[in-house]
Here is the input.
Amino acid sequence: MTASADLAAPLATDAGARRLAGLRRLDLLGLGLTLITLLAAIVFAFPLYWGLITTFKPEYEIIRPGVALWPEHFTIENYVHVLLQTKIGYWYVNSLITSVAVTVIVIIMAAGAGYAISQLNFPGRQFFWWMILASFMVPIPALIVTHFVVLSQLGLINTLAGVVGPQLIAPVTVIIYKQFFDSVPKDFREAAVVDGANDFQLLFRIYLPMNWGVTTALAIITFIGAWNLFLWPFLAVSSEDKMNITVGITQVHDAFGVSYGRDLAVAMLAALPVALVYLVFQRRVTQAIMLSAGIKG
Amino acid sequence: MSAQNGNGSPHVELRQVTKRYGPVTAISDLTLTVEKGSFTALLGPSGCGKSTMLRMIAGLEAITQGRCFIDGADVTDLPPAQRRIAMVFQSYALYPHMTVRDNIAFSLSIAGASRKVQRERALEAARILQLEPYLDRRPAELSGGQRQRVAIGRALVRKPEVFLFDEPLSNLDAKLRVQMRFELAKLHADLRTTMIYVTHDQTEAMTLADTIVVLDRGTISQVGSPLDLYNRPANKFVAAFIGSPSMNFFGVDLVGASDGLASVVLPGGRGARARVRGASKPEGAVELGVRPEHFGLTGVDDPAAALPGAVVIVERLGSATILYVDTPAGQLIVQGDGNLAVRPGEQIGLSLVEADVHLFDASGVAL
Ligand SMILES: Nc1ncnc2c1ncn2[C@@H]1O[C@H](COP(=O)(O)OP(=O)(O)OP(=O)(O)O)[C@@H](O)[C@H]1O
Ligand SMILES: [Mg+2]
Here is the structure.
């Protein structure tokens, strides 16, 4: 913008000419940066492209040596097989049920916990806050054996509830809510208190609606995380019709021998909802990632 | 507005109230009675405890010691919602995600009123405040003055017994402030509801209130009507705080007092007289206060001139002229007519009228 304005203006002075030269150098720098980012984008996007293109190749073409960037014989056989011969319908529904359940429960619990720690005065508040911060320091996979033992004692192994359970540990979500609720000016709270609002009304009619952006961002990122989760659902479920779609991929592999085309077809179908969510809510997702990165960093 | 609005019966009472924040004492042993129907202003400099007092009446701040009564009932331990008060915050605290209508009707909706009642009452309040065209907008789409009105509407819709305002006009520009001041005065004249109004702006307090409570570091300095405070300040703090430009002070010698009239010797040697309250006063050094607008201007050799002086600066405000005058008593501020014919460097005399001269003892208490 400024560059074109400068070009349009007559270059009456030396200073103007020097500025223009400066801009040109800057443009060169910009061009270089663009090229680098473009290169990086290709590096990241290529595996995706490779995976997608592979699903449209017949198996013999896939295992043939050499790099074919486009299928010789374009086929949708892999998808047809996966959709008709596997329990992908179950896996999809299971993934949907568990991910939605995780999202809804995590959001409600985290909002409640964040509100309590941010706004209420009760004995042990500081203790709970430290507990949440501490639990956030512990990597979840480190606890996976304990989770398994506890859930099997509760008789929840090989159930959808068992898949959901350990995913409800979401300290980051609580921390983010707490920080946002902390930053709501206290006048809002007091005005509502004078008007007779209780804590539930404060949370659901003031604090949550005033932070809708955070809630949608957190909900999306929680959903994507739950959908993509592999390790825990893989351990918690053994019967095929209780599996999530991420776990289901392993079944395709086992039941029909190694078939890269079919495996990748399931993977593509598994990734589809997340890709759609991302495309629709791109801005929110980035925001959510920044939010949790801000906490982690 | 200056007429007494209260009907004499106490409405809000604080009895020997103390408020401490940890080691900080914000309010100490304060007793105050606000009359029913009055418009009472809590006036004082920043940090003197005005907001704290208001918030204790609202129930937003716990009282460390003492009791608070509303309508004769002890409300010290009642939550805000049960005190039949409504509060307007300095920040307005309008919920950004709700329309003006929902903001105004919020308390009704919390109380479980039907949608229809909410709409009717919100409309009624909006009509009083000329907000009807904006009912479906959000606060972000309103001007400062309109937001202020919504905040008042939110208080209005609850039909409270007491309105509490915490510096409601301080976020508005000067012109709008004058207009809102007028509308608040009109609202009080229409409703006749008790209003307690916190401000650090003496003009607001003087124009709106029928009773002004001047606070100084957590205690009451003086309670009275605007003219009481202006004409008979109880101490130097009130004398200096009320009036603009502020009162001039300088040291004088009290040489005698009889029949409520004291004689003093001014710096420079001439004498003056002042009305005082008690009969006998200890002779010696006291402080004299006189408002800029209460000096008379005379020739420098006029026998009526109490102080001779040289004009240093002349400020023309149109309606008045402000003079900075060097005198034996130090530099004094003098206010005269708008078209006063005086130039910098000119020698003038200042005369005093006994009714307008205030004397204060060493501790600042008016004699
Ligand atoms: N939450 C608190 N914790 C500690 N001290 C406080 C708190 N709130 C107020 N104070 C102190 O109490 C005193 C009175 O504060 P208050 O807010 O009532 O002043 P104010 O008269 O309303 O001033 P302003 O005109 O600036 O709003 C101040 O000295 C302030 O520092
Ligand atoms: Mg204040």
Chain A has two domains: 2-54, 79-292. Residues B 50-51 surround magnesium ion (ligand 2) (CB under 6 Å).
